[in-house]
Design goal:
The chain is of the alpha/beta class. It is built from 21 helices and 28 strands. The protein is elongated. The termini are far apart. The structure holds zinc ion. The site of zinc ion has 6 residues, from loops.
Length: about 650
């Protein structure tokens, strides 16, 4: 029997969070070096370790440190940057552009330190992380004295720390080699999500995790959209799909798992996968409710995570425990589901198991690392205390306890907070530097938000098109005359198309911003069936040359971008002041008229119901040529038996003129 314990923590309500939820009161914990030597009643441990240095815990709760099973620590620097948005607008419109501009090793180091300060204050001793420049995350974590399961991100797009997936995979390998075996850091590999990775990336990441025997972290089945896309593209739901690529064969930590069915729960269980449940993030992004009750009932190790501070917006595991319990009750219509003791277990022992760390942490048991916290429950918001039922203490922690009830935090046998004072981090200096970043990011976004064009460029793919175009347009009473006139010998038809166009025009209070057109083209075959669909986004600058009279437009600058997102995405991202919709059936010919090629568009404008229009269009490179062509275009229209557009059609000409 050992009697050289370095520390004896006495006079505590000891919640061991072991499998039997053993409690000791008045209890004690003996800490030797980095590990727990013994846990028991105070009188027994005092007798067992007579020479120990005694620390009186003042009747507080002594429990394992909380395990945050999913997050992105450095994003603490982006807290409050953009909120109340849908996931795609938030991620593609704000997070990724700002990350491309600002994320560096210095940013990541500072952001992680800020997160560590917050996590220590709220009783977290171990956290899982997926981000860029993970080496900087690891260094900041070690300096703060926290424990981390840290994953270097890998994805198919260029990232702030890698130009290609091969580069990020190499970075992941180097990261594993550097940190494997560190007393505080468990390095891991983190393919971002199935929809941001190719099957080859998933396979390569699984191979890497297997080679180094480390956890693999990934976001899985977070939204219903992700699952339905996966079914369409891969013929399987998300968990079944990633199983094909080896993701379940390693120490998997699957974040979210909101939309998983019974079969997938079975798959996760049979592969001993850990799941990180993120109630705040799922609620705030309206992602849905994870089937936590079913996963726990099946026997899956479900931990609790905060997700990044840019989406949560804090790293408070007390709040997450409370929400995990409340959400599960509400979703199942059953208040007995997920009782408080189980919520605390998810934030400790089950969380450690989910991270494949149960040998080291998650409960106060001899041989495990000394990661522990003291929580002061004798405060007004948490008084009085009933002792009749042993479970009562968990309800106090989960339903009434606050993160700031945590007074002392020890990780790996070292105090990192004592009596509310951080011992490893200079909080004031961190806040000053974080404010400086916020100022710079604000300036960047203010400059960008000022211009529709720069917002378009920020989401990628915009290129400037030709800027000189002739258009002549006329309203038609009867399109049959035009069809007949097309047989004229003066007009040679080069080809013909038929499609249906759905145009949405966004405009803003400042006319200099131009108009943004989202166009959906349905190509129609000879039978009127849809043979193909095309989406295009065009930013139309104000006309540079002005208009000739009422029926001819000399064109303007235009920027084209592939419309890879939904109309809803663009609406929420660009926030137009005005929106107009035009639907038309368009027959288009490419014709040769007196040596000049024109496009002839015969439009039936169905919405608003404006009738038929004929339009002649041609591109050109000089003003002189433009004037010549404008004249020819008018003649062409006249040959087709049409008069120039009248005033009634002005609105249509104005917005659909290009
Ligand atoms: Zn996440």
């Amino acid at each position: 029997m050992s009697n050289n314990a370095t520390l004896l923590l006495t006079n505590a309500i000891v919640l061991t969070m072991d499998a039997a939820l053993t409690q000791y009161e008045p209890g004690a914990v003996a800490v030797q070096g980095d590990s727990i030597a013994a846990v028991g009643l105070e009188a027994d441990l005092r007798a067992q370790f007579p020479a120990a240095q005694v620390i009186d815990c003042g009747g507080k709760v002594l429990m394992p440190g909380l395990v945050n099973a999913h997050g992105h620590a450095a994003m603490a620097l982006l807290r409050g940057l953009a909120d109340d948005l849908r996931l795609d607008v938030w991620l593609l419109g704000y997070m990724m552009p700002v990350e491309r501009e600002f994320v560096s090793p210095e940013f990541v180091h500072l952001g992680t330190q800020l997160a560590c300060a917050e996590m220590i204050r709220s009783g977290t001793t171990c956290f899982a992380d997926m981000y860029y420049f993970e080496d900087s995350v690891a260094r900041a974590t070690v300096e703060a004295g926290l424990r981390g399961v840290l994953g270097q991100s890998v994805l198919k797009f260029p990232a702030p720390d890698a130009a290609s997936f091969e580069e990020s995979l190499e970075a992941a390998r180097a990261f594993l080699q550097t940190w494997k075996g560190h007393p505080l850091i468990v390095p891991s590999v983190a393919p971002h999500a199935p929809y941001t990775c190719t099957p080859e990336i998933l396979r390569a990441c699984a191979d890497l995790a297997a080679e180094f025997d480390v956890p693999l972290q990934i976001h899985l089945a977070e939204t219903a959209q992700e699952v339905s896309n996966c079914r369409v593209e891969n013929g399987a739901p998300v968990i079944a799909y990633v199983e094909r690529h080896g993701i379940l064969d390693v120490k998997l930590v699957a974040a979210h798992c909101v939309h998983v069915d019974e079969g997938e729960i079975g798959l996760l269980l049979s592969h001993n996968a850990g799941v990180a449940h993120n109630p705040s993030s799922n609620l705030k992004l309206a992602s849905g409710v994870a089937p936590v009750r079913d996963m726990l009932k099946a026997g899956i190790n479900v931990g609790i995570g905060t997700d990044g501070a840019a989406s949560n917006n804090d790293l408070d595991m007390f709040e997450e425990m409370r929400l995990a319990a409340l959400v599960a009750k509400n979703a199942s219509n059953d208040p007995t589901v997920l009782p408080a003791a189980q919520a605390v277990a998810m934030a400790t022992r089950l969380g450690a198991r989910a991270l494949h760390m149960e040998q080291l942490i998650g409960s106060l048991e001899p041989g495990k690392r000394a990661d522990l916290i003291l929580v002061d429950l004798a405060r007004t918001h948490n008084a009085p205390r009933f002792r009749r039922e042993p479970e009562g203490i968990y309800a106090q922690l989960v339903y009434a306890g606050h993160a700031h009830d945590v007074t002392d935090v020890m990780v790996n046998g070292q105090w990192v907070m004592h009596d509310g004072q951080l011992l490893t981090l200079d909080e004031a200096a961190l806040l000053t530097r974080a404010e400086d970043y916020a100022r710079r990011i604000d300036q960047f976004l203010i400059a960008r938000e000022h211009s529709v064009l720069s917002k378009l460029i920020a989401i990628g793919g915009a290129r400037e098109g030709e800027s000189f175009e002739v258009q002549a347009k006329a309203r038609l009473a009867d399109p049959v005359a035009v069809l007949a006139a097309l047989c004229w010998p003066d007009i040679e038809i080069l080809y013909e198309r038929h499609y249906r166009e759905f145009d949405t025009y966004f405009s803003w209070a400042d006319p200099d911003q131009g108009q943004l057109r989202y166009r959906e083209d349905e190509f129609l075959d000879a039978d009127g069936g849809v043979s193909n669909v095309r989406y295009r986004l065009t930013l139309l600058g104000p006309a540079r040359e002005g208009r000739f009279e009422s029926d001819v437009v000399l064109s303007r600058s235009r920027f084209l971008a592939p419309a890879t997102h939904s109309l809803r995405f663009y609406r929420e991202y660009f926030r137009p002041a005005r929106e107009r919709f035009i639907q038309k059936d368009r027959r288009r010919w490419r014709v040769l008229f007196r040596g000049t090629e024109f496009y002839l568009n015969l439009d039936r404008v169905e919405q608003p119901d404006l009738g038929y229009f004929i339009e002649a269009k041609s591109r050109t490179w000089s003003r002189r040529d433009a004037e010549h062509k404008a004249e020819l275009a008018r003649e062409l229209i006249a040959c087709l038996g049409a008069a120039p557009a009248d005033a009634v059609a002005e609105d249509y000409v104005e917005i659909a003129g290009s």
